[in-house]
What does this fold into?
Amino acid sequence: MAISGYGILLPTDGSYPAIAATVRAIELARDRKGKLIILKVIGVEGAGMEKIAEDSALMRTAGIDGVAYAQDMAKKNGINFEVVYREGAVVGEIVRTATEKQVDIIVMGSSTIKGLPGLYLGSVSRGVIKEAPCDVVVVKLTEDEMNRAVQLAHEIAAAIKAPPPVKFDISDITKSNRFRTGAILLAIYGATYAIFIALAVYSINVRYHHQPQTPIFSIETLNMNVGLVFGFAVIFLAIVMAVFFNWYAGRSEKKSGGN
Amino acid sequence: MATYSFQPIAFGLFVVFVGITIGISIYASRRVRTAGHYYVAGGGVKWFVNGIAFAGDYLSAASFLGIAGLIAFSGYDGFIYAIGFLAGWVIALFLIAEPLRKIGKYTFGDALAAKFKDRRVRLVASISAIVVSVFYLIPQMVGAGSIVQPLLGLSYEAGVLIVGLIVVLIVATAGMVSTTWVQFIKGFLLIFAALALTIGVLFMAGFGPVQFIGHFVQNPVTVPTTHGNTTIAGDVFMSPGVKYKDPWDFASLALALFLGTAALPHILIRYYTVPKPADARKSTVVAIVAIGAFYILVLFLGLGANLFNGAAYSNGGTLDPTNQNLAAPLLAQYVGGEWFFALISSIAFATILGTVSGLIMAASGAIAHDIYTEYFGRKGDDKKTLRVSKITAIAVGLVAIALGIAMKGQNVAFLVGLAFAVAASANLPALLAMLFWKKATSQGIIAGIIVGLTLSIGLIIVSPTFMGTTGEAWFSLQNPGIISIPASFAVTIGVSLLTQNSAKKGASNVAS
It folds into this structure.
C-alpha cells in the first residue's frame, strides 16, 4: 500500500488509447484525491514505437507526447503528480514501476490486437494484467469522451515538440558478458568451420592431384568416414552452442535484473 | 525416365494450402493499417513463432529440393552445402541478432541512418538490399517453374506466374503479418515432412541411421546420368570432390555461405518483428535448432533417393537425371505412395511461397520505406505510405515473375550460392562496421557496399557460368566470394580511415 494516499500509475505512450486512459486516471485522481505517477517507457523502441504508430493510425492522427499531455491535464485539475521515465521492455517496466512505487491501481489504454493475429502479436495490457501486483484498469472510453480527449490532445499537441530521435547506442549489449562469451563461441566455431573447409579442400586436392594418397576425409571411422563425422560435428556444434548461449544469456539477464 | 502428368491430389492439396494462406492474409489485412504493421507485423511477433518463421524464410526450394538432389547425385558435396548454409547462422546469433534489434525500425537502412547522418548511406544500402533480394528471387522463381511441370502437370511459365501472383496477393494484403504466417506454417510442415520421410526411408531400408550412412561409405554407389548409369566407389561418393573439382572454387563457396547468411536482407528484416533484443536472440536459437535438424534429415532424404532409385525403377525411379530437384518428391512417392508424393509436392510449393514472400517484403521495404519515404522524404499519412508499400510489393512481384521466366533452365542451388556471395560482399562489411567499429565513416560504408556489390556481380558476369567454359572466362572461379568479400572489407576499412577528418568535421557541424 502506498504510504501517502491513493497511488495511480498511468503508463502512456501518446497513443489514443493512452490518452483515453489519461482522461480516466485524471478523473480517478481527482475523485480519490490520489497521486498520479505518469510513466513513459523508452528504450526497447520496437514495441513502444510500433504501438504509437499503430494506435495513432487507427485513430488517423499523429502521435503526441503522452507525458506532456498527462502533465497538462494534471496541472489543470490540481492533481499531485510525478513523472517517471524508464528504459526497457514495456510490460516489464510498467510492472516494475508499479511494484517500486507501491501504487494501488494501474490505469492504461487497451490496444489489444484481436482475433487470429492476436494469438501471436503481443498485447501490453494483457501482459500487465497478468503480471501486475495491484488492480489494473484497462480503459475503454465512449465515443463522446474519446472525441473530447482527441480535441484536447490536438490543442496541446501543437505546443509540444516531437520526442527526440532514438540514440545509436548498443553498448549495453556489446559490453555485456554474454556478448563477450558469444564472440568467443563464434571464434571457436569459425575456427572449426575453417579447419573443416581446409581439410575438405585438401581432400579434393589429393583426389585430383595426388592420387595414390588417401584423402583425410575418406579415412573410415565410426562406421562412416572422417568427413561425415566432422560434418555432423560442425552441425551439432552450431546447435549445442546456440542452446548453451541462450541458456547462459538468459541467466545473466536475470542476474542483472534486465528483461 | 519418369513421366509426369497432371496430379489431381497434389494439385488439390496445393489449392487447400494456398486457400488457407490467402484466407489468413485477407483476415489479417483488416488489422494492418500502418506501415509498422505492414513492415514488421507491429514488432510484436513471439520469439518462437519468429524462430520457426526464420526457418521457413531461410529453407528455400534450394535447401529442400536442391540439396536433397545434390546429395542424391553428388553425395558428400551436397552435404557440404547443408553444413555451409547452417554455419552462417552462428554469425547471426553471436554478432547480429541483439544489436541489430536494438537499433533501426523496419530495415537495415534505418539502422545505418541512425548512426550516420548521411542520407546517401541509406540510399546505397537500400539499393544493395534490392539487388541482393532480386538475385535471390531469381532461383526461387526458376525453382517454382521447374517443379510445377512434373508435380502439378502445368507448364514452366504457368508455375512461375502462379507462384508470383499468389505471393503478390499474400504480401500486398497484409505484408509481414501474412508473410510471418506463411513462413511459420511452412517451416513446421517442412520439418515434419522431412522427419516423416526420413523415418520412412530408414524403415524401408531396414537400417539404423549410422548403419544407413555407413552402407554408402562401404558399397559402390550408382548414379544415373542422362547417358545412363555410372558407378562410383562408396568412399569416393561420400567424400568431397564429386561435384567440386577446383579447391579454390569450393573454398570460395564455403566462405560465401558462412558470411552470406547474416547479410541477407530478407533474414535481417525478420529481426525487427520481435519486441526486444532478447527475443531476437531466442528466435535465432530456435532457427538454428530447426534448420540444423532439417539439414541432418536432408542427408537421409538425398541418400534415400539414391538407394531406392533401382528398386523403384519400374515406376520411373526416384532419381531423374534431367531434373535433380525432384529427388525428394519422387522418394516420397516410393516411400508413401501417391498421397505422400502429393503432400511433399505441395509442401515444396509452400516452401517457395514462404521464401519468395520474405524476399519481396525485403525488396519492397527497401524501395517504399528507405527510398521513397525516407530518402525522398515523402512522409505522407500512414494510409498513403501503406498504399505505396503495397504497390511496390506488386511491382517487385511482377519483376520477379518476368525474371523467373527469362532465366528458365538455370541451376537453382548454384544461383543461391551466388546470391550468398553478393550478400556477403555487399552487406556484411557495412553491417559489422556499423555495429562494432567506431571509426567507420559513411564514406567507408558507401564505398564498401558499392565495391562489394559491383565486384561480386562483375566477377559473376565474367565467370565460367556466363562466359562459357573455364578456359574462355576472364575469371576462373564460379563463385566470386573469395575475392569480392575481402575486397569489400578492405575498402570499407581503408576508405573509413582515409575519411576520418571529414567525418569529424561533419560531426562537429552537426553539434554546432
In short: Chain A has a mean pLDDT of 76. Chain A has two domains: 7-161, 170-255. The domain at 7-161 of chain A is CATH 3.40.50.620 (Rossmann fold).
